[in-house]
Amino acid sequence: MRVHTLGSGDPEFAVVACLHGDELCGKNAIERFLAAKIPVEKPLKLIIANEEAIAEGERFLDEDLNRAFPGHENSESHEDRLAAAVLDELDGLQVLDLHSTVSFPEPFVFYHRLTSHTRRLLRATGLARAVNISHVGGGLINHVDGVAVECGLKGSDEASEHAYNVLVNFLASHRIIDHDHALSDPDVYRVTEVVPGAGYEFLGENFEEVEVGEVYATKDGEPEKVAGESFFPVLMSTGGYDHLIGFAAQRLGALSSLEDDPSDD
Predict the structure, then answer these.
(1) Judging by beta carbons within 10 Å of its beta carbon (0-12, 13-18, 19+), is residue 119 exposed, middle or buried?
(2) Which CATH number is 79's domain given?
(3) pTM of this prediction?
C-alpha cells in the first residue's frame, strides 16, 4: 500500500485507488494529480492500495479485496490483511474510492447509507447517477464514511480521464483545492438483488429499465433470464463476473427528494 499525505495537519478526506490491481484508472488519476503539483488548501490522504496485485496485473492475489473488509491483520490472505491495514489508514476520514468496470462506459457513484456526509460526498462527485449498494457486503464503503465511483470501462483512457475529473471536482467541492467544480443532484437507485449466472449473454443496457416478462439474458442450453418484476440493471454484463450477471436495482428518485437513512444509534 502506497500512502501520500499532502498538506499540514490531520486530513479529513482520503482518495483510494486500486483495491483491484487491474483497475488502474484511479492510480492514473492520483499520479496525474501529484505530478500537477496543485496546491492543497487542506490536508489530504491519497492511497494506492493493492500494489502487489498491480505488480502481477491481477484483480487480486488471494481474494477480492473489496469483499474482504473489515479484514484481519493476522490472516494468511494478502487481501484480508490489506483490508485491515486500509481501514486503519482511513479511520475517521471521508473517502472517495475509485474503480472501473467492464459493463458501463459512463461514471456513476455507489454509496452504502444516505447520511448528511454521504449526501455531500455524492454531490461532490458531480455525477448524474448514484446507487445504494448496501445489499452487497464486504465492500470498503460499507465500513467507512465514503462513496465509490465506477469511472468507466477498465483499461480505457476515458476511465482515467473520468477518474481525474471526478477527483478534481471532489477535492474542489470540499475546498481542498481551488478549482472550478459543480455539485450534482444524481438520480438514485437501490440494488435489491444479486443476479447469479455464468456464461450468460446480457441483452439489456445498464440503467435502462427491464420490463416485467422481458428476456434480459440468454445462454445456450439454459433457461432464459426473464424479469419477474421490472428493474434497472447495474453492472450487468456478459462475462464481467465469474458467477454473476450483475445486479438488479430500483429507481428511488433524485437525491434531493430523498430523506437520510435512519440512524443506527
Answers:
(1) middle
(2) 3.40.630.10
(3) 0.95
